[in-house]
Specification:
The complex is a heterodimer of chains A (263) and B (327). Chain A is built from 11 helices and 2 strands, in the order H-H-E-E-H-H-H-H-H-H-H-H-H. Chain A is mainly α. Chain B is of the alpha/beta class and 327 residues long. Helix content of chain B is 36%, strand content 31%. Chain B has 12 helices and 13 strands. In chain B, the strands form 3 sheets. Chain B has a 6-stranded mixed β-sheet with strand order 5-6-7-3-8-9, sandwiched between helices. Chain B has a 4-stranded antiparallel β-sheet with strand order 11-12-10-13, covered by helices on one side. In chain B, strand 11 and strand 12 form a beta hairpin. In chain B, helix 4 runs parallel beside helix 6 and helix 5 packs antiparallel against helix 6. The chains are: A mainly alpha (263), B alpha/beta (327). The interface between A and B is medium-sized, with 24 and 31 residues.
Chain lengths: 263, 327
């Protein structure tokens, strides 16, 4: 176990080597958050509810989004380039599960991000003093946590599957960008998805994307009944299974194609 | 006992061909052309425990590909490979703990962290005990004289210092089998010598089996009794270094010292003249004619001194690499 602990420490240590990069990146996150925050504040000026949301619900949604995404989608690991540049060879040579190694580095990334997210958020809350929504129902809190963990796993395998395309093509960033664009929209990072037209909303729910941000948040806000929530968790599990299988399948096939370029 | 055994190993690559420039890129986008490159073509050899073998050949001969197959990175197109009884591509943990691959061109050290951090990480990954780790690191850093740079971030180290640290990182777990790909590339002669001594010592002390590639003949001459020469994916020689001459040298070198000036044309009629620096003349003589030619020389010319030598190994290897036909 100690090796995973050391991997986490070393990853964080690497960040510290480039403090300014890290700080500027966090500044970007905060600015983006402020833009969305003030946008929604403006929409609410004079209105009690917009699109069926109370002001405090929306503001909570907006402020929690970066926290959730730093936990789920926030990782700088780029498996595609590790394969493309041949660095994968380093991991393959060692008696270590490459998947576990990546997951560990990923968790280290997330640990760092979530720590800073929490600090930033606390500062913002103190400064802006927004009216927030506090969930106190234990069942909702439990389901919220469960869906966070599932989403984290889902994103890990989805991310791996995309990265493994680099075994076959140097253009692995193409499909990746496409997914990022869809993800930006369908994950509900800018607005809650249920304000979309009903058919579009229903369609989005069968894709894996809402489960990366919108879904856990809406559970926290208590927007759904238990049946809807359980259905969502079921769909998340399906996508986890799908991307788990896909990523291992791609991995096994890809390794046979791997040419350890540049090594 | 065979530690490494390779039989009829073949590895082909599909390589995308692209004409230069943007139009070439566009063309290759819509109609990609692939070339089948036979990096390794029907290779067979074995290594015994404790052997230190030089694996030599021109660039692109298939040396690195072979090392990558042996260390489990590449999936062979066909053929059987077995190292320590394992099939490398399965990457069994016990197997990975017994080998190491070091490449002079790339690094495994964490770029932004000091080398000692990578050593510690490898210690945990390879499950080396504290005691053994301490002993290995202090012994090796002492041998390579780098105690003072262990805490400097890798990116600030010189190439030589980095290579030394790479070597230590790769040896933390004391592998029984070591694959070294150009470990001395780009280093100055003093540093090359230090690394050579270190490799020799590791081989002797731990009875490790080592397969080494290098373009520096000094490395090979000093370290390896046996060499495998490979070209265009095929083995063209496998045997002791000293016997290369017997196999490949087609000529011998006769050095003459003349007592007085002569007409050099008449000398050229006897055999090929390679170099003249009066009174010394160097002649190139086919092996089977040496005695005949020598007799003639002594008879016809005022010879003060005569010396018959084998061709230098370097010259022979150069000939092999330059693709000259060998008899």
């Amino acid at each position: 176990m100690k090796k995973y602990y050391l991997i986490i420490l070393s990853t964080i240590d690497e960040y510290i080597a480039y403090v300014l990069n890290f700080v500027m990146w966090r500044v970007r996150v905060i600015l983006r958050l402020l833009v969305v925050y003030f946008l929604w504040s403006a929409i609410f000026s004079g209105n009690k509810t917009v699109f069926g949301y109370q002001q405090n619900e929306i503001l909570t949604y907006i402020l929690l989004t970066p926290l959730i995404s730093s936990l789920i989608t926030g990782s700088k690991s780029d498996i595609g380039s590790e394969i493309h540049q041949g660095n994968l060879a380093n991991y393959l040579l060692r008696p270590l599960s490459v998947f576990k190694y990546w997951l560990t580095k990923d968790l280290a990334d997330k640990l760092l991000n979530i720590t800073f997210s929490i600090i930033e958020l606390s500062v913002l809350v103190l400064l802006l003093k927004p009216d927030l929504y506090w969930q106190s129902n234990l069942q909702n809190l439990f389901l919220f946590t469960l869906s966070l963990v599932l989403s984290l796993i889902l994103y890990f395998f989805l991310n791996n599957s995309l990265g493994f395309l680099a075994f076959w093509t140097a253009d692995y960033w193409g499909p990746r960008f496409l997914v990022l664009v869809i993800q930006e929209f369908l994950a509900g990072g800018i607005f809650p998805l249920d304000i979309l037209p009903r058919p579009l909303f229903i369609f989005s729910l069968v894709t894996p994307f809402p489960y990366l941000s919108y879904f856990p948040l809406s559970i926290y806000l208590g927007k759904h009944d238990l049946i809807f929530t359980m259905a969502g968790i079921g769909i998340t599990c399906f996508w986890i299974f799908f991307f788990y299988q896909l990523s291992f399948w791609l991995w096994r096939r890809g390794l046979r194609k791997f040419s350890a370029e540049g090594r | 006992m065979n530690i490494i055994s390779v039989s009829h190993l073949t590895k082909y690559y599909q390589v995308l061909q692209k004409e230069s420039g943007l139009s070439g890129s566009l063309k290759s986008l819509f109609n990609p052309q692939y070339n089948l490159v036979k990096a390794v073509n029907d290779l067979s050899f074995t290594l015994q425990q404790g052997e230190l073998v030089g694996f030599i050949g021109p660039n692109g001969a298939g040396k690195t590909t072979t090392l990558k197959v042996l260390s489990g990175l590449l999936y062979p197109t066909s053929g059987e490979v077995s190292v320590l009884g394992f099939t490398p591509f399965e990457r069994n943990n016990t197997y990975l703990k017994s080998i190491s691959l070091v490449m002079g061109q790339k690094n495994q050290l964490w770029w932004d962290l000091p080398p000692i951090d990578t050593f510690h990480l490898n210690k945990e990954i390879y499950e080396v005990s504290d005691q053994e780790f301490q002993r290995t690191v202090s012994e090796m850093t002492h041998l390579l004289n780098i105690e003072q740079i262990l805490k400097t971030p890798v990116r600030k180290l010189s190439l030589g210092q980095r290579m030394k640290c790479e070597l230590i990182a790769a040896l933390i777990h004391r592998p029984q089998v070591l694959f070294l790909d150009e470990p001395t590339i780009g280093l100055d002669v003093v540093m090359q010598k230090t690394l050579r001594d270190f490799i020799k010592e590791y081989n002797r002390k731990y009875q490790a089996t080592i397969l080494l590639t290098s373009h520096y003949m000094e490395d090979v001459k000093e370290l390896c009794k046996r060499v495998i020469i490979i070209d265009k994916g095929k083995i063209i020689y496998d045997g002791s270094l000293s016997k290369i001459t017997q196999k490949f040298a087609t000529n011998k070198k006769i050095t003459l010292v003349l007592a007085k000036e002569i007409d050099l044309k008449s000398l050229a009629q006897v055999t090929e003249v390679k170099e003249i620096e009066f009174p010394q003349v160097i002649l190139n003589v086919p092996r089977n004619k040496v005695s005949q030619v020598t007799a003639k020389l002594l008879q016809k010319f005022p010879v003060a001194d005569l010396n018959i030598e084998e061709e230098q190994i370097e010259d022979i290897i150069r000939k092999i690499f330059s693709g000259r036909e060998l008899s």
